[in-house]
Amino acid sequence: MRFVWIGLAVIVIGLLVFSLLRRTALAPAPKEGPNLPPLPKVPAGGADHGLETTYVVTSIKGAHDQRVISRGLDKRGTAIAAVRTDGVLIDRRRASTLFIPTVKLDGVRTTSSLVIVQWTHGGYELETGLRMRNDAERDRLHDRVTALIENQGA
Predict the structure, then answer these.
(1) Domain ranges in the chain?
(2) Could you write out the DSSP letters of every residue in the chain?
(3) The whole model's pTM is what?
(4) What angle do CA 150, 106, 74 make, to 5 degrees?
(5) C-alpha pair distances (Å), 105 with each of 2, 10, 15, 31, 108
(6) d(CA 148, CA 84)
(7) Pairing relation of β-strands 87-92 and 77-84?
(8) Cα 82 to Cα 51: distance, rounded to the nearest angstrom
């Protein structure tokens, strides 16, 4: 009887190890998005102090499993998002700064904690997710990007 319990324990431990491997090392990687041309350069100019945010990822619009790996856009981290008159500046720590010119902005939407900026570059429709600290900051960033897009047509 003792060997039966030892055998069951070994099987359970084996299943746990297999389960952990499947979720990590053996899990399919996210699909790689397109190889983008060089990103727009950040023009000289002022901006407000911006809002502290967490840059989540840039992916293909409507296909969130296709993350854009090129140009370092797959690196999650702390950032400052500033809405300027010429576009949206996302100054990422330990990663390259992302600047989205006003003319490339297509829209903006929110989820419970994210602001998702929709834009085009190199023939691709992209979405960049920014996780805000609270609802007030989320709404503020959403409203400022929306105003920037609306003023573009005026």
Answers:
(1) 31-153
(2) -HHHHHHHHHHHHHHHHHHHHHHTTTSPPPEE---PPPPPP--S------EEEEEEEEEETTEEEEE--GGGTT--EEEEEEEETTEEEEEETTS--EEEEGGGEEEEEE-SSEEEEEEEETTEEEEEEEEESSHHHHHHHHHHHHHHHHHHH-
(3) 0.72
(4) 135
(5) 67, 56, 48, 24, 8
(6) 8
(7) antiparallel
(8) 6
Residue 74's pLDDT is 85
Structural domain 31-153, CATH architecture: Roll (2.30)
Q: pLDDT averaged over consecutive 10-residue blocks of the chain (154 residues)?
A: 84 83 60 63 65 92 81 88 89 88 93 92 92 91 91 70
Nearest-CA neighbor of 97 among 41, 21, 56, 32? 41
φ and ψ of 54, to 5 deg: -115, 120
pLDDT for res 119:
94
Tally of CA atoms within 13 A in the half-sphere of 61 that contains its CB: 16
Amino acid residing at 30: P
- Do residues 79 and 90 make contact, with C-beta atoms less than 8 angstroms apart? yes
Give the residue carrying structure tokens 């600290």: 133
